[in-house]
Amino acid sequence: MAARIPVDEHAAFVRSLLTGLGARPSERVALADALGRITASPVESPIALPPFRNSHMDGFAVRSGDVTDAPVSLPVVGEVAAAPGVPAPLEPGTAVRIMTGAPVPDGADAVVPVEDTEPDVVADRIRVLRPRAAGEYVREAGSDLAAGDDVLPAGVRLASRHLAAAAASGLTELLVRERVRVAVVSTGSELVSPGTTLGPGEIPDANGVALVAAVRAAGALVVHEGRVRDDVERLRAEFDAAHDAGAELVLTSGGVSKGAYEVVRELLEPLGGWVGSVAMQPGGPQATGAYRGMPVIGFPGNPVSAQLSFELFVAPTLRAIAALPPAASERLELAEPLTSVPGRRQYLRGRRDDDGRAVVVGGPGSHLVAALAASDLLIVVPEDVTTLDAGAVVDTVVL
Amino acid sequence: MAARIPVDEHAAFVRSLLTGLGARPSERVALADALGRITASPVESPIALPPFRNSHMDGFAVRSGDVTDAPVSLPVVGEVAAAPGVPAPLEPGTAVRIMTGAPVPDGADAVVPVEDTEPDVVADRIRVLRPRAAGEYVREAGSDLAAGDDVLPAGVRLASRHLAAAAASGLTELLVRERVRVAVVSTGSELVSPGTTLGPGEIPDANGVALVAAVRAAGALVVHEGRVRDDVERLRAEFDAAHDAGAELVLTSGGVSKGAYEVVRELLEPLGGWVGSVAMQPGGPQATGAYRGMPVIGFPGNPVSAQLSFELFVAPTLRAIAALPPAASERLELAEPLTSVPGRRQYLRGRRDDDGRAVVVGGPGSHLVAALAASDLLIVVPEDVTTLDAGAVVDTVVL
Predict the structure, then answer these.
(1) Are A376 and A351 in contact (CB under 8 A)?
(2) Helix (H) / strand (E) containing A288
(3) Whose CA is closest to B382, among B277, B285, B304, B280?
């Protein structure tokens, strides 16, 4: 029997197979569709921000020299709203009423906020109560950004504030990295579509739904989904369909263990793929290979194993490409003692109890899909550890 | 001049206006569309998990009593695959080859993993090398979950592992909370659609794009987007359109300060709304009201003010409804000294420098939309603080 591959070695090998995915092509998307996408290159603003000199306050545009000796009274000769148009230049010794964001007239070099004024006893005049220096409450054109400057760098994951800056620059679309195109294929003659009435020996396919959602949560795009019974030619047809759909990566579940009907093994091994055992529980049987230029990562068919294998081996790479943070890890105390098998890294499903300690949920069985759903962390028990006491500190992976 | 309302008081008032949004109607969505949605009620599994007794390993199904004295030799009388069908009962003194996940035949009560066997010298027989007790490597029907038990609780934000458990239960859709239906309306005669060639006095509307994206990032749904010039009847028409689109909340930008063309003020004040000043910078002018049963929260028109106001006053409620974690806050040392205005809580845009200290990005101006995009945190300067030294510890809000 072949030796079990250490977890970290398998993880490194899968990572190396996925290296090519890191060089992303780019595509243009509308601002409205760009939330969460990653800029492919620095984004230049075609205009200055703000595009014209404008008022920071509701008040009166003046020449600062006219209010040096405030309080002073000035005739109000007009009004400038935040609206299209070019205001008339400001004559010396006069003021115009001005709204926040409105263009400051030529000739004016300061804005006196309305709070620093009072109506004059004479009609159509304003009393300015405080002097205002040149530039006060005036936003100069380009004071946020000059035309041609970068408004966003490359590689930024777009949040609302980035889209706001792009919109303010007059942009309607952005060049972003294409998401990784992934195919998900479930194998197993026992699998039926969820919702189908189950005959004897049949179970709903949970892996398809789980891996599709997990791929999306990792920032990638599912371009093909398939489910095949244990028939290598059908699997080959799914891989061909994935290739035709432009998949850059194929994820499979099932068909990698030591039974008689292991279709992933049957397909990949003649193509030079590897199907073997990794020193972990759950998730021992794993596969790696390539098909028509697409890396293929094969997970076991047990739904807990398949989900965990994705999180450990593939999600880190996809998340990094999507500029998502890696899964958090925490060191927690165990609420209860536990035992583990020697020679394999155990990933027990668990949750934090009310005291912030890690407690195991369900058992180690790789079929306990409801227990996994009830968990919020994985408790990592190293290969050489077989017993842990309550209170022992363990590494956990936050789900 | 009316007194400025304290930030926390305004925040509490807005929160109270949004209380009604917390009681969410529910809707059915397909599993494929349910990622990130929130279960509206506990989800019952119509079937047991697993639905039938099956093998945990590739190996041989036996009667445990037949292998007590292992090593023993047993005739292999058949094979059970993980495939539809009912296997024949196991006769005493025999074994059947069995695959992982395959139904364990009646009569068999243990599975001997293939690793614990070797081929017998006699054809069609297997040598079992180790005894296996009743139940070993057998997954009992219902050992994960009994039929009728809850596979998911109410109020869980659906991740891939939850969808996997629902799929394994044979479910195809889930009852989830409806997302909050929000309308976003920008006001300002100076605003044009991003991408439009700018005439004098015109600027691209950044607030629409920003608030729509921010609403989505907070887990809510934008059902209406509008932009109006400073014309109260046009604003009323937008609010009516929002109502017709089923909006439960209207967010506006602009039209709330002290100028002459303040359309949000003109519309809301006669309806009993409040338009006034909050003791903060940026974002002083704010509005609250209601229109045809929809709460209306009005932000200032400056894009930095509008975005910040949303994050401070509305996002916490929307995020809580969507079961998203609140924005993180951190206490950081200032990299440089800073000054602030008395009587107003200042939210300076900033980022972490290489030493993990907070450094201010851009100035305090509410028009610095590119500087906001370049920030990753807000530095909070309390109302009564006007100067802070380098090294002073400040609260920050992580963007």
Answers:
(1) yes
(2) strand A285-291
(3) B280
Amino acid letter, residue A144: D
- Is 60 exceeded by the pLDDT of residue B1? no
* Residue owning tokens 């044009």: B192
CB contact under 8 A, B373 and A206: no
Of B111, B103, B107, the closest CA to residue B53 belongs to B103
What is the distance between the alpha carbons of residues A375 and A306, in angstroms, rounded to a whole number? Answer: 16
CB contacts under 8 A, A 187-206 vs B, are 188-190, 194-196, 198-206
Which of A200, A210, A260 shows the shortest C-beta gap to B84?
A200
Q: Which residues pair with B44 in a beta bridge?
A: B150
Tokens of A3: 């030796």
Q: Give the amino acid at B115.
A: E
Mean pLDDT of A266-280: 96
Pairing of strands B249-253, B181-187: parallel
Which tens digits make up the pLDDT trace of B177-226? Answer: 999 999 999 999 999 999 999 999 999 999 999 999 999 999 999 999 99
Q: Does pTM surpass 0.90?
A: yes
Distance (Å, rounded) from C-alpha B301 to C-alpha B283?
9
Mutation for testing the A interface, residue in B161, B197, B349, B397 having most A CBs under 10 Å:
B161
Token pair in block for residue B186: 């920008």
Structure tokens at A80: 């400038």
Residues B213 and B207: beta-carbon distance below 8 Å: no
For chain B, list the domains and their CATH numbers.
7-16+179-321 (3.40.980.10), 26-49+143-177 (3.90.105.10), 54-139 (2.170.190.11), 329-398 (2.40.340.10)
Question: What is the greatest pairwise CA distance in chain A?
Answer: 103
* A28-40: pLDDT as tens digits: 999 999 999 999 9
- For residue B175 the two structure tokens come to 């009852």
CA dihedral A33, A38, A41, A45 (to 10 degrees): 50
Residue B200 confidence (pLDDT): 94
* Chain A residues 45-64 with CB within 8 Å of chain B: 45, 47, 49-52, 54, 56, 58
CB B73 within 8 A of CB B28: no
Q: What is the mean pLDDT of residues A181-185?
A: 98
User: Rounded to a whole number, what is the distance in Å from the CA of A236 to chain B's nearest CA?
Assistant: 20
For residues B335 and B233, give the distance between their C-alpha atoms in angstroms, rounded to a whole number: 49
CA-closest candidate to residue B381, choices B399, B354, B358, B362: B358
Closest CA to A95 of A64, A140, A56, A136: A64
* Torsion sign across C-alpha atoms B337, B338, B342, B344: negative
* C-beta separation of B154 from B197 below 8 A: no
Which residues 136-195 on chain A approach chain B with CB closer than 8 angstroms? 139, 143-145, 149, 151-152, 159-172, 188-190, 194-195
Q: Which amino acid is at B289?
A: G
> Which stretches of A72-158 are DSSP H helices?
none
Instruction: Give, as one character, the DSSP assignment of residue B265.
Output: H
Cβ under 8 Å to B: A residues 288-307? 301-303, 307
What's the mean per-residue pLDDT of chain A? Answer: 95
**Strand bridging mode B358-360 / B377-381:** unpaired
- Specify whether the CB–CB gap between A66 and A93 falls below 8 A: yes
Q: How far is residue B356 from each of residues B121, B231, B334, B379, B391, measured CA to CA in Å?
A: 70, 47, 9, 13, 11
Which whole number is the average pLDDT over B298-304?
95
Q: Is A44 on the interface with B (CB under 8 A)?
A: no
Identify the pLDDT of residue A354: 94
Q: What does the angle CA B189 – CA B192 – CA B197 come to, to the nearest 5 degrees? A: 130
Q: DSSP string spanning A216-242?
A: HHTT-EEEEEEEE-S-HHHHHHHHHHH
Q: Which amino acid is at B112?
A: V
